[in-house]
Design goal:
By secondary structure, the protein is α+β, with helices and mostly antiparallel strands. The chain has four domains: 212 residues, Cytochrome Bc1 Complex, Chain A, domain 1; 206 residues, Metalloenzyme, LuxS/M16 peptidase-like (Cytochrome Bc1 Complex, Chain A, domain 1, 2-Layer Sandwich), CATH 3.30.830; 215 residues, Metalloenzyme, LuxS/M16 peptidase-like (Cytochrome Bc1 Complex, Chain A, domain 1), CATH 3.30.830.10; 183 residues, 2-Layer Sandwich (Cytochrome Bc1 Complex, Chain A, domain 1), CATH 3.30.830. It has 30 helices and 23 strands. The strands form four sheets. A seven-stranded mixed β-sheet has the order 12-13-14-18-15-17-16, sandwiched between helices. Helix 3 runs parallel beside helix 8. The longest helix is centred in the N-terminal third of the chain and has 25 residues. Keywords: Hydrolase, Metal-binding, Metalloprotease, Protease, Zinc.
Length: 919
């Protein structure tokens, strides 16, 4: 073995990455990574964000990110988005960008199977870097879109942010440079102001190109040099300042309230200078911090699950505090209304408990096991890691200098460093963080009658009380019993068949249960499982519906077998395996995942979820308190009232679609919930267990025989019931008035009967994909009336064979009707003239490109195999028949789908508008 690295040793750069700097100062990072195949992730990173805006440019760093998609040297007007859609890249979902205080990052995923596509990708990066045009008409149109993005962000959270941010960032420029800007600054944006920001800050010494994907790195490096090598340095570059957040001797206290917020929270932050990760010592410090926070968060989560807990949820963390130069250690809690002082005191006492008595050796050992397990999994996946997972490291290196040594080096380093990190070292870790100076306290609460909000003096008084409060040592009693008290007597596989078209093996077990297995090599350290059976809450009487609906949650929060939820987490430390139950309207089941080496643990947990569910009344009381707080303030949120109206209306006023209130939640009886759960999982004979991932039949078979074939079976035949709740017929229009912000949300729902076949599902999906393109083109790009229009839809087979298409968009209240008229005009055109061949080609390419990646993902196979199996459709139809449908996609097919599914005599229109103001 090599010698252990010294603390001062610099962390190396991952040798798989080509890093270089052009003579003009532009940096580049290039890595070949063939996962997914025929794809690359490209980034243009600009070390400039809203913090660099002049006073007359607020919001323009972000505005400029928008104009990058609307008129460049090689792609005039909207040609850039249209071109990318033609090669299967979706706008928003794939192609995107983001602007923050200190940087702007442009995101461009592209196919790499033709040299021309890759070349055009670099044309786009170069255009973003130096070819933006700022056409006055395009800027004027984009202003509407940016204003709609600003409008969509308005609400309780934004209003409270503007209350506490100036206090928390006192004396810092960051308080005045939120990236979105202000309504006034967006309206005042001009091509000249945008051009000035672009010329000042979009220059090679402040930029980097990151490319990770399935390509030849030498060819990509040549493209970088060709496209960016000739970009001139700035003749007189403006100095790039690095602002910070000034220190504060006295605490900074902000109390923010709003009539539409739903939660009372308190956060205390301790600022300190930023620490980069560049040496072995830095890396070790990061590991120590991660272990400390994991143990403290474990204790906070444990406290929150006790009846009468001082907070509903709490957490600790450390990270950047707005500025690159400033970090903060943070303690935060969500509390019952009026209980902010109590929650804050409990947080401070918990941190003091660690300082005084320290952590237990067993706590540290568990967290070390979990931490090491995470690195072990990452190392196992080193040849199968998606390109998108790498780019963030290289972006961070360019912007902040943090090292990227690569998982092989990191895994080796962690194994060397972890044993030397001791409880004694971690116990005092936070002493340097928790200080009287550089303290920031932020309290937020609903502004409503009866909710007491603490004053600044009261909050500061809590710190004095917490420092004097008696503190006892933390104790725990851990059971050494195994997960399963006794290994069950195995059953057996009684029949086997294969579906060679999709590589699936099917077993029928001696208790009647089915097992489907698709072995894959997509990931080295992943096995996914889903189990399903028909029935669900539809089989509960109305009188027990609320208990049935919460049954899976009640069991999940209670733990399993002989272990509470908290103790189960401790028992499973160092293992990568987990199972969660779910009970829907028409089915019940389990979802699970594991590392191949922890597959037996996954099967044991599955067995226990059938045979040993439990009720933890203390955990349920804590859950009830959390739910009561959320329910009490649901009515304050305009979007929640809107969603409730949609739910009640579209179910025809069904009893089971009642909005959640204190009264309806009071109907939940935890014992009745557990009884319903046990009844749903009493018969394994009608369950199917589907596994997808890195597991061979010979490995899974004995485990399935022991833990699945041994499950109880009563061989009953059952299915779901239709309990009502069908959507209304005809045209329904509802207006909800709620909220103070001048914004509107429109939702159109088209519903009707549906023949649930693969062909109809495909046609419906193609229609919604195409309508998404048309809606974005029209409502956003042409009218500038909305930021992010959305189209979604699908068919269902249970409890009714029906389809639903959802069309939604935000806008100004005065523009809502105009946009809706445009939507119906687009629908009419689609039905009478059909779509263009070019638009259908875009959809076909998007479906082909998505499919290429999806077929290498375990989760995609799991969902699709389960869906087809539950519908009684042959699994063999998943591949070749679908490909044939894609090839046959035509304008006529989409037009026919539009005529069938956009039924303008059977739809509902819901509009959320601001509450009426008194004259």
């Amino acid at each position: 073995t090599s010698a252990a690295p010294a603390p001062a040793d610099p962390l190396p750069a991952d040798p798989a990455v080509t890093v270089g700097t052009l003579p003009n100062g532009l940096r580049y990072y290039i890595r070949r990574n063939p996962k997914p195949e025929k794809r690359a992730e490209l980034r243009l990173v600009v070390n400039a964000g809203s913090i660099l805006e002049d006073d007359d440019q607020r919001g323009l760093a972000h505005f400029l990110e928008h104009t990058a998609f609307n008129g460049t040297k090689n792609f005039p007007k909207n040609e850039l988005v249209g071109y990318l859609q033609s090669i299967g890249v979706r706008f928003g979902a794939d192609l995107n960008a983001n602007t923050s205080f200190d940087q702007t990052v442009y995101i461009l995923p592209i196919p790499t199977d033709t040299a021309r596509i890759v070349e055009r990708g670099f044309d786009i990066l170069e255009d973003w870097a130096r070819g933006q045009r700022f056409d006055s008409a395009e800027v004027a149109n984009e202003r509407g879109i940016v204003l709609e993005e600003w409008r969509g962000g308005q609400g309780a959270g934004e209003r409270m942010l503007r209350q506490w941010l100036p206090v928390a960032l006192k004396g810092s420029r960051y308080a005045e440079r939120l990236p979105i800007g202000t309504r006034e600054s967006i309206q005042a944006a001009t091509p000249a102001k945008l051009r000035r920001f672009y010329d000042d800050w979009y220059r090679p010494d402040l930029m980097a190109v990151v490319a990770v994907g399935d390509f030849d790195p030498a060819r990509i490096e040549a493209l970088v040099r060709r496209h960016f090598g000739a970009v001139p340095r700035a003749a007189r570059p403006r100095p790039r300042p690095v602002p910070g957040v000034p220190p504060n001797a006295a605490p900074l206290v902000a109390v923010a309230t709003d009539r539409e917020t739903t939660r009372s929270t308190v956060t205390v932050l301790y600022k300190r200078p930023h620490e980069s990760t560049r040496t072995v010592a830095d890396y070790r410090r990061g590991l120590a911090q991660e272990l400390y926070l994991a143990m403290l968060n474990g204790r906070l989560a444990e406290t929150a699950q006790k009846p009468g807990a001082p907070f509903l949820g709490a957490g600790a963390g450390t990270g950047a505090f707005f500025a690159r130069t400033t970090d903060a250690f943070q303690l935060s809690a969500t509390v019952e209304d009026g209980a902010i002082p109590r929650g804050l005191e409990a947080l401070l006492v918990e941190a003091r408990r660690v300082d005084r008595f320290g952590f237990l050796p067993a706590e540290l050992e568990r967290e070390k096991q979990d931490l090491l397990r995470g690195y072990e999994q990452a190392y196992a996946e080193r040849e199968k890691t998606n390109s998108g997972a790498y780019v963030g490291e290289y972006v961070q290196h360019f912007l902040a200098g943090d090292a990227f040594p690569g998982i092989a080096y990191e895994y080796d380093l962690v194994r060397r460093l972890l044993p030397g990190i001791t409880v004694a070292e971690l116990n005092g870790l936070a002493r340097g963080w928790i200080t009287d100076s550089n303290r920031v306290i932020v309290a937020q609460a609903p502004d409503k009658p009866g909710v007491r909000v603490p004053t600044e003096a009261e909050l500061l008084g809590v710190f004095r009380r917490a420092s004097e409060a008696p503190v006892a040592a933390y104790t725990e009693t851990l059971s050494s019993q195994p997960l399963l008290a006794r290994a069950p007597a195995p059953g057996r596989v009684v029949s086997e068949r294969t579906v060679p078209e999709v590589g699936v093996t099917e077993w029928r077990l001696s208790n009647g249960a089915r097992v489907l297995l698709k072995p894959t090599d997509f990931k080295a350290d992943e096995v996914l499982m889903t189990a399903y059976s028909e029935g669900g809450t539809s089989l509960a009487p109305d009188s027990a519906y609320m208990s049935a609906a919460q049954a899976a949650q009640v069991v999940a929060l209670s733990g399993i077998g002989g272990f509470s939820r908290v103790d189960l987490g401790k028992k499973l430390s160092g293992k990568a395996a987990g199972v969660a139950p779910a009970i829907g309207e028409t089915s019940e089941g389990l979802g699970g995942r594991a590392s191949p080496k922890d597959l037996e643990t996954l099967l044991q947990l599955t067995h226990l979820h059938f045979t040993a569910p439990r009720l933890d009344t203390a955990a349920f009381q804590a859950f009830r308190a959390q739910a009561a707080q959320a329910i009490a303030n649901r009515g304050l949120v305009p979007e929640q009232l809107f969603a409730d109206t949609v739910q009640v209306t579209m179910s025809g006023g069904s009893f089971r679609a009642r909005p959640l209130t204190a009264a309806t939640f009071a109907e939940v009886d935890p014992r009745r919930a557990l009884a319903f759960y046990k009844e749903r999982f009493a018969d394994a004979s009608d369950f199917t267990f589907l596994f997808v991932g890195n597991v061979a039949p010979a490995t899974l078979r004995p485990l399935a025989e022991r833990y699945l074939a041994s499950l109880p079976a009563i061989r009953r035949k059952e299915t779901w019931k239709d309990t009502g709740g069908a959507p209304p017929k005809g045209v329904v229009e509802k207006v909800v008035r709620s909220g103070v912000e001048p914004k509107a949300t429109t939702l159109l729902l088209f519903t009707g009967p549906f023949a649930y076949t693969p062909e109809n599902r495909f046609a419906l999906n193609a229609l919604t994909e195409l309508f998404q393109i048309k809606l974005t083109e029209s409502l956003r790009e042409q009218l500038g009336g909305t930021y992010s229009p959305n189209v979604g839809g699908g068919g269902s087979r249970a409890p009714r064979a029906e389809y639903a298409i959802r069309v939604s968009y935000g806008s100004s209240p005065e523009n809502a009707d105009r946009l809706t008229r445009t939507v119906f005009a687009l629908i009419d055109t689609l039905k009478t003239r059909g779509p263009s061949a070019a638009d259908v080609a875009k959809v076909r390419e998007q479906l082909v490109r998505s499919r290429e990646v999806q077929l290498t993902q375990n989760a995609y196979w799991l969902g699709n195999l389960a869906g087809r199996d539950q519908a009684g459709e042959p699994l063999a139809g998943l591949l070749a028949p679908y490909d044939a449908m894609v090839r046959a996609l035509s304008p006529a097919l989409v037009q026919q789908a539009a005529r069938r599914y956009f039924d303008t005599k059977n739809y509902a229109r819901f509009t959320l508008l601001p509450e009426a103001r008194a004259p």
